[in-house]
Design goal:
The complex is a heterodimer of chains A (297) and B (359).
Chain A: H1 14-25, E1 28-41, E2 44-57, E3 61-65, H2 72-80, E4 87-92, E5 95-96, E6 104-107, H3 119-129, H4 134-147, H5 163-176, E7 181-185, H6 193-209, E8 213-217, H7 221-227, E9 230-235, E10 240-246, H8 261-274, H9 279-282
Parallel strand pairs in A: 3-8, 3-9, 6-7, 7-8
Antiparallel strand pairs in A: 1-2, 1-4, 4-5, 9-10
Chain B: H1 13-36, E1 44-49, E2 61-63, H2 64-77, E3 83-87, H3 95-107, H4 118-149, H5 151-164, H6 173-180, H7 184-208, H8 212-220, H9 225-259, H10 267-277, H11 281-309, H12 319-329, H13 338-355
Antiparallel strand pairs in B: 1-2, 1-3
Helix pairs in contact in B: 3-11, 4-5, 4-7, 4-9, 4-10, 5-7, 6-7, 7-9, 9-11, 10-11
The chains are: A alpha/beta (297), B mainly alpha (359).
Chain lengths: 297, 359
Amino acid sequence: MQTIQLPSYKSQSPEVADRFRRLKERQVILETVGLGKVFVTGNGEITVLDDICFKAYRREFLSVIGPSGCGKSTLIRILSGLESASAGQVLLDDKPVDSPGSERGMVFQGYTLFPWLTVKKNVMFGLEVAGKGRTEAEAEALQWIDMVGLEQFANHYPSQLSGGMQQRVAIARALANRPRVLLMDEPFGALDAQTRARMQSYLLQIWRNVDITIIFITHDLDEAVYLSDRILVLSAHPGQVQEMIEVPVPQPRSPKQHLSPEFLATKAHIEELIHPQRESEDVLPIIRLTQVGDEVL
Amino acid sequence: MSSWFTIQKELSGRRGAALILLSFLLPLGIWSLVSYVPFIWHPMVEITGEGGSPYMEKGQRVKRELFAQENQRLAQEGAELMTGTRANPVYLPPPHRVLTAVYTSFKSEPRRPDDPWLHESLAHSIRVVFYGFLLSSVIGVPLGILCGVFSCFSKLFEPFFEFFRYMPAPVFGALAVAVLGINDGPKVAIIFIGTFFQQVLVIANTTRQLPPSLLEAAQTLGARGGTLLRKVVLPAIAPNVFLDMRILLGWAWTYLIVAEVIGTSTGITWFINQQAKYRIYENVYAAILMIGVIGLATDMVLAWIGRNVFVWNGGRRNEFFKFLFELFYGSRHETFSFVQKRIAKHADDTTAQLQEPIP
């Protein structure tokens, strides 16, 4: 069998290397310091997250990936303030945060639009809570709805929209608050493959046009490599930082890059990190229900 | 044939409608058969001529065996025989008599001058249910929501209410009369006791069904405390609370009949008992029917209101409700801008007229 010889995922072209150098000179928006989470259950304590340290720079797209049960969702819930950490701190602009706030927008995996509000009113929600007048809030909301390309649907209810459209509204609703960081917890996980690809391209367009730092949880390798500047790879039981990968694929991204050597090299490396080959475990016991001699191989 | 019995599948519109109609026609048909076809039941004989019998009267209904015995006796004595037609007992009037009674019972003057007319009795019943249910809801709905939202309210109230609701409301009748006198006070109290405790528990439960993800989303948008309660919890649970209220109103009606015999008998129950005493059973049936119709009509009106208020589950507001929302929210509520659309249409028509070439 012939396989393609891939370069090392660490080899960056001069442009990409330069980009990462400039990225790290930017302001740190969000930082975690020794973040840990322990759940106390009837059977004792379970350490879900242990000593998580990373920095997210301004306008960076940072993905978090890891095997199931590595505490990705717990991590983002702590970042958003919906859950409290057992150890360590979350710093937003160098100030510790420990409760939910509008400066950290969040897009959830499930559909969390308010079903009793129209698209426009959903996007206006945060603005009105922040005390903006109705006219001002409405004008701003319509701008954000335009930005996600749903201006014809401003007066529709969420139940009248497809899953992808609902998530676009959820993004608009979170961005309308002008948060410092946008936290996304597997936002496209429930969508079908085509819609998900379209949503990824929408998200990249929005990210380019808005001054926003994105922290994106996913379990999809392609998604992580395609979207991110850097990828934080977690290990499971307990969730620890395994590696912070700088994606060597040049920006701006396009779907064609899915087959570029750098893309495949990065993907292969992460694959190895989170699903180490254990062939003995992948073989099922032999229980034959077919006739001997009737082989498919 | 198989498609009439497919598990968990809606019947087609025509079949469904046919069955709905049948569900009412079937009991009516059985009732009509028993009433109009003599050989099905008709265990009595209504005497049309008393003949030579010394103690039978015209119009009296006697058992068929007794009628035959008496006629046999009269025949032996050589006296004139009685005549009669087969009839049902007086407590089972035929449908047409009940149907006319629905109208005539409103028109017939009460036997004693102080007694209320039927419409007064009905109004009295509706008033008692209304006040009982209103009082219960005014306290019960907010308390239920608080119990559903805050664990401390839930722990403080719900265990006792769980215990209390097992005591049937009517057992408090005597106490209610002792405390509140013999007028409408104890009746309202019985309906209150019957409804309130269930209401708090049911609404607390409905409130707890609120998906936590909606609350979390609102928190990440900056909402907290009272805002969260007002802008997320209340609108999110409103349609289900409305549904609960419709069901609870039905319960309130059930307690009415017990409540009305406490202290002095009043309202529709008094009317029914009175008519039974006079043996005018078609009026009894008519009154029972009216309770059913009032209950069903109220529920249908409430369902209609619900469909027009909670439109986000795929419903549509009709013009009347659009107008109401317009009044309530003013023209900034652009989504349902009924008036604005009318004005715009009018303006368009006028421009169109102006632009028409003059011949």
